[in-house]
């Protein structure tokens, strides 16, 4: 079992003298490409967008299937991209998603392709996604309680998301990963429960700090649950062990944890999950 605390890596630059590839300001080579397939979504997470949704992009402003396939080809062939992540908005709402994945897979037989989704509709599409060539899936889910889920997403769809997660695991969409944002006073107390659930299911759990992306401008630094706080919350009930396999380890306040076990357990630690 692994968990990850902290913020996702953002931003790369390509200095003209850095040679091929995408090099960030610390000299690290970025090999992951992240492509947003749509700005649309069928949830309305309070930390992401207002209840009425956003002014959606014109179709002409959204990458076409052909453009996406071409961009990936350029990334893999010329920029050292070795892993692809498809995101949104919500990528499952894109009608040509299966064709996009199939086209990319046809060009890049060995490229790991993952997708971040809110899980709505995943139960019906998991097998087709796998067949099209998707390697892995990350599902964003912040609560295991219907009322809290509905409060956070403004939609009463927790059962549908859970069905989607189960379907992804059943069809073998890699090691299913769960992304969770903790909101102070709303679901932060659920951190240990989410971890216990993920461990029991054999999923990898990643807690993500809330970023100031909310269209309602409600984000405050004080309101954000930091990675250090997340770790403190979990350590009240679990023993966390830093992951020795993580070569790019963030500072100790954040970090990846390859192993977790209840403080009260006298049995062997839970099995590690492959990355
Ligand atoms: S956080 Fe993700 S699931 Fe929630 S509204 Fe934004 S895009 Fe949709």
Q: Spans of 5+ residues with little confidence (pLDDT < 50)?
A: 6-18, 249-253, 264-275
- N- to C-terminal distance: 9 Å
Main beta-sheet strand count, sense and barrel state:
9 strands, mixed
| SS element count, helices | 7
Succession of helices and strands: EEEEHEHEHEHHEHEHEE
Description:
The chain is of the alpha/beta class. It has a single domain, classed as Alpha-Beta Barrel (TIM Barrel), CATH 3.20.20.70. It is built from seven helices and eleven strands. The strands form two sheets. It has a nine-stranded mixed sheet, covered by helices on one side. Helix 2 (97-107) links the parallel strand 5 and strand 6. The radius of gyration is 19 Å and the shape is globular. The structure holds iron/sulfur cluster. Iron/sulfur cluster (SF4) binds at residues 41, 43-45, 48-49, 88-90, 118, 140.
